[in-house]
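Inverse folding, one chain.
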């Protein structure tokens, strides 16, 4: 019999029981003690106690939206099939549903969106061949090239484990021992370190991937999202400070309201392609994520555009539980030997299993639109059995002759890179840690250089002298004027380095101490 309760607005508990009193727990008399069999209360409060899953260690503060990706069917002026057999790119006008999550990186889930920080730009494509996750940032490079350094990097950027205060000395202590970060530091402390909002922000896959065609031939590829409607806009530090005083969620609000009013954000996806070899003619290794590929040599080739046209119905179910991984690729896409990519590919999926649960891929926001049939079973919060129509429920293994799953036929020749080298622990042979940082500095506009120097001096002036000297040395190797301007700024700065955390934070604490009015207790 049809349950009429499902068709009205009657409140129920999770067992489907109608709730006739949601205001009062059961007590012995109106003032007496409560009893243990307060089932509705115990179920309600125990669920409430568990409403927060572990916060992301990085990218905790986020916003998201649904939309679609529309392929051009070409890469530049050539047929895309020449370079990749990935189905979502092949036909002009072909649309693939997407979900995008934007984020800040270092700070917590309710931190201001005006803080200086890289922004995450993660796209989940729900393709006919299953999901593809393109997980990147707004900036096109990164601080490090080896994943072994990632936990230390994040620890140094996070608040001090004793004081729980952000402290730039910790960050620059790490960065002074990491010369390859100089290029990223140059971007981060310029206005590019604070995008005005998510709609006017670039995106990049950061790492180098591969495209594979039907013959198994591969090309190295980098992905870039460029905003189509309103251009790119970044903030000065004083502008960010003023916004933060009024709204700590300005970027989330901007994205949500733009979509609600029908001003749908759009980005064009372009790729850079490079043959899959060492490229000894370059003064850097193309697999190095601290480097940009020169657009004059490797131009941006448009392959499609993305439109975000629908807001989430529930922030937690969609934005918070959305789980991405760099290893989530479809046929025609592949990994390169980028060390950082190799490390991310394990770490991302591993953290989702810890954070959301072993069956996180059964949640609607993460589940592919393509059919799913696996022999994986059980685990916490199993929603369903991922079995195929006609599969024997007795067979959860492969191979089998008793009604089990079968391997899929290949879509094309497998890409088989060849290797002949010793197993070693060593950095890339062409680190060239400072050249591109200098080029980026010189390409900045005057106001961007001024802002960069001001922000670096403000952060470095609380650091120990040896850290200042090392960082100035890095900036000087990048560009002589760059290093001189930072050194001159530090020489003019006067600060008591016994203070914990940055000068601006210390000034804020002192302002609070001397503001307000005393009052009697009550």
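Residues assigned per position:
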């Amino acid at each position: 019999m049809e349950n009429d309760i499902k068709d009205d607005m009657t409140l129920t508990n999770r067992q489907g029981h109608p709730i006739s009193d949601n205001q009062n727990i059961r007590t012995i008399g109106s003032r007496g003690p409560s009893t243990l069999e307060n089932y509705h209360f115990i179920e309600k409060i125990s669920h409430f106690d568990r409403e927060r899953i572990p916060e992301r260690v990085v990218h905790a503060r986020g916003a998201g939206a649904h939309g679609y990706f529309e392929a051009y069917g070409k890469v530049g002026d050539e047929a895309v099939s020449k370079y990749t057999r990935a189905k979502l790119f092949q036909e002009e006008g072909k649309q693939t549903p997407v979900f995008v999550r934007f984020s800040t990186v270092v700070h917590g889930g309710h931190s201001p969106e005006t803080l200086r920080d890289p922004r995450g730009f993660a796209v989940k494509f729900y393709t006919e061949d299953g999901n593809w996750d393109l997980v990147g940032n707004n900036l096109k490079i990164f601080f490090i090239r080896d994943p072994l350094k990632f936990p230390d990097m994040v620890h140094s950027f996070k608040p001090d484990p004793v004081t729980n205060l952000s402290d730039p000395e910790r960050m620059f202590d790490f960065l002074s021992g990491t010369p390859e970060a100089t290029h990223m530091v140059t971007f981060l402390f310029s206005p590019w370190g604070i995008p005005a909002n998510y709609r006017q922000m670039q995106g990049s896959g950061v790492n180098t991937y591969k495209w594979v065609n039907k013959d198994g031939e591969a090309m190295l590829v980098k992905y870039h999202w460029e905003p189509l409607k309103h251009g790119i806009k970044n903030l000065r530090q004083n502008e960010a400070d003023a916004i933060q005083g009024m709204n700590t969620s300005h970027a989330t609000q901007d994205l949500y309201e733009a979509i609600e009013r029908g001003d749908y954000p759009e980005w064009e996806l372009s790729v850079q392609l490079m043959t899959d070899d060492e490229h000894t003619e370059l003064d850097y290794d193309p697999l190095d994520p601290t480097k940009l590929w020169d657009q004059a040599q490797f131009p941006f080739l448009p392959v499609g555009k993305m439109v975000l046209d629908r807001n989430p119905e529930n922030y937690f179910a969609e934005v918070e539980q959305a789980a991405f991984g760099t290893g989530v690729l479809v046929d025609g896409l592949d990994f390169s030997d980028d060390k950082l990519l190799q490390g991310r590919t394990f770490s991302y999926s591993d953290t989702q299993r810890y954070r959301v649960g072993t069956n996180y891929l059964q949640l609607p926001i993460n589940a592919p639109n393509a059919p799913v049939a696996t022999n994986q079973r059980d685990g916490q919060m199993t929603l369903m059995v991922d079995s195929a129509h006609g599969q024997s429920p007795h067979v959860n293994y492969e191979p089998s002759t008793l009604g089990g799953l079968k391997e899929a036929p290949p879509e094309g020749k497998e890409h088989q890179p060849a290797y002949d080298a010793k197993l070693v622990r060593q950095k890339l042979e062409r680190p060239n840690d400072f050249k591109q940082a200098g080029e980026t500095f010189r390409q900045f506009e005057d106001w961007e250089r001024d802002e960069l120097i001001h922000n670096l001096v403000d952060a470095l002036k609380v650091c120990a002298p040896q850290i200042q000297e090392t960082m100035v040395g890095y900036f000087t190797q990048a560009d002589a004027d760059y290093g001189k301007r930072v050194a001159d700024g530090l020489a003019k700065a006067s600060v008591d380095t016994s203070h914990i955390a940055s000068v601006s934070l210390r000034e804020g604490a002192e302002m609070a101490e001397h503001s307000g009015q005393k009052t009697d207790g009550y």
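The chain has a mean pLDDT of 92. The chain is about 25% helix and 15% strand.
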